[in-house]
């Protein structure tokens, strides 16, 4: 990489960006990268295909650091604190030890992706759907509008920087940051830059939500603090979640679903949650381990050149995030006009990310959290499911 993100010849820069990426991809993408690497004399970074003691040993101290840092971020109220902490730990190690690279074994990363898919699928439940049954058209239009907005902002960003289309589009998807980052490799995007853009958006949204609500809306008197789930969760969940993850990922690949390792388990878990009288949940410990593995996988692939590119992209990405937030507020106005929700409920339901921060502020402000959760979850699921199809369409259309 090492090229200026605002270079006048974006094509070669985008090619260099693709050649510099380390992750293994599906066969078609992997073949392209291998051929390109051979043509340029660059050897792709090796990654372990098997789970071995030697491969897992270096991850133990990294995991300990990520747990400690993630606990602090969770206490500070940052969404997906363990994923973000693991990303930072991996980034630090990758930059401090550039000649001695550590890689997450691919089976472990695939298992983390599939577990995250099950987690997202469990957000679909009958209570969420019943809470917004009368407003389905308005909420559907808001969800679709958010996706189209993300694509439009991503397109402008790729035209004004050296980002490729897949990376720019995924980086600007306004929701489901962990899921978007997890599927980036399979869609031919640079997961490092996607992670940077996604978590910068989350950070900006999380920091601005309390300020905007405090200044623009009257604060209610009710304050409810949601309780934490037991760390180990339900015993049966330790059997059900891996089974759903495996079957869903296998079925997704057999049906050639885009980002199959994530979307297959998501669709299967969502179907089970909606059709069976069971309370399907992912044990918190398993969830955070999956988050941590995904964060480490992305962070460990950073290089000094990538960090320089991130610095050049900071201002354009911040400007794009501001546009996302401003247009999302217009969606909130429309949602409030078309439903019985207040403008504050509409704003919290349409913020481009930061779900857990939204819930915390909503509880404190006495907002209609049932409506907010339902809209946010449906919007998130819509974005994560449709994003792979949209990215492939954009890449084919532009390419």
Task: Write the SSE topology.
Blueprint: H1 10-20, H2 27-40, H3 53-56, H4 59-75, H5 81-96, H6 106-122, H7 126-131, H8 136-160, H9 165-171, H10 177-183, H11 191-216, H12 237-254, H13 260-275, H14 284-299, H15 304-338, H16 343-350, H17 355-365, H18 369-398
Helix pairs in contact: 4-5, 5-14, 6-10, 6-12, 6-13, 6-14, 8-9, 8-15, 8-18, 9-11, 9-18, 10-11, 11-15, 11-17, 12-13, 15-16, 16-18, 17-18
CA distance, first residue to last residue: 21 Å
Instruction: Specify the number of helices.
Output: 18
The shape is: globular
Number of strands: 0
Helix/sheet category: mainly alpha
What is the H-and-E element order? HHHHHHHHHHHHHHHHHH
Largest sheet, in brief, is: none
Mean pLDDT: 77
Helix content: over 70%
Brief summary:
With 399 residues, the chain is mainly α.
Question: Could you please describe the fold and organization of this structure?
Answer:
- The protein is mainly α.
- The chain is built from 18 helices and no strands.
- Helix 8 (136-160) packs across helix 18 (369-398).
- Mean pLDDT is 77; it is low at 1-47 and 220-227.
């Amino acid at each position: 990489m090492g090229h200026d993100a605002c270079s006048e010849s974006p094509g070669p820069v985008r090619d260099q960006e693709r050649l510099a990426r380390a992750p293994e991809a599906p066969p078609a993408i992997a073949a392209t990268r291998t051929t390109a690497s051979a043509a340029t004399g660059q050897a792709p970074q090796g990654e372990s295909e098997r789970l071995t003691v030697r491969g897992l040993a270096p991850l133990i101290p990294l995991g300990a650091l990520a747990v400690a840092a993630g606990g602090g971020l969770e206490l500070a109220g940052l969404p997906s604190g363990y994923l973000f902490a693991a990303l930072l730990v991996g980034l630090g190690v990758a930059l401090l030890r550039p000649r001695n690279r550590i890689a997450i074994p691919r089976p472990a990363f695939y298992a983390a992706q599939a577990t995250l898919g099950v987690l997202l699928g469990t957000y679909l439940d009958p209570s969420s759907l019943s809470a917004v049954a009368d407003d389905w058209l308005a909420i559907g239009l808001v969800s679709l509008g958010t996706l189209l907005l993300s694509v439009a902002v991503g397109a402008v960003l790729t035209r004004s920087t050296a980002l490729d289309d897949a990376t720019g589009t995924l980086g600007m998807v306004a929701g489901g940051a962990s899921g978007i980052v997890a599927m980036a490799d399979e869609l031919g995007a640079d997961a490092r830059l996607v992670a940077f853009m996604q978590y910068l958006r989350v950070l900006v949204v999380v920091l601005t939500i309390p300020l905007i609500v405090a200044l623009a809306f009257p604060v209610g008197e009710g304050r409810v603090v949601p309780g934490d789930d037991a760390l180990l969760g339900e015993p049966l969940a330790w059997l059900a979640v891996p089974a759903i993850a495996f079957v869903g990922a296998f079925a997704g690949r057999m049906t050639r679903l885009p980002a199959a390792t994530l979307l297959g388990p998501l669709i299967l878990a969502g179907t089970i949650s909606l059709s069976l009288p069971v309370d399907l949940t992912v044990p918190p410990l398993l969830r955070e381990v999956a988050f941590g593995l995904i964060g480490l996988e992305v962070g460990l692939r950073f290089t000094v050149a990538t960090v320089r590119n991130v610095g050049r992209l900071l201002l354009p990405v911040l400007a794009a995030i501001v546009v996302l937030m401003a247009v999302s507020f217009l969606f909130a106005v429309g949602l409030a006009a078309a439903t019985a929700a207040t403008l504050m409920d509409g704003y919290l339901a349409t913020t481009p990310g930061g779900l857990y921060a939204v819930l915390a502020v909503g509880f404190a402000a006495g907002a209609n959290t049932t409506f907010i959760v339902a809209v946010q979850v449906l919007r998130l699921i819509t974005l994560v499911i449709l994003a792979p199809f949209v990215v492939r369409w954009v890449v084919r259309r532009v390419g």
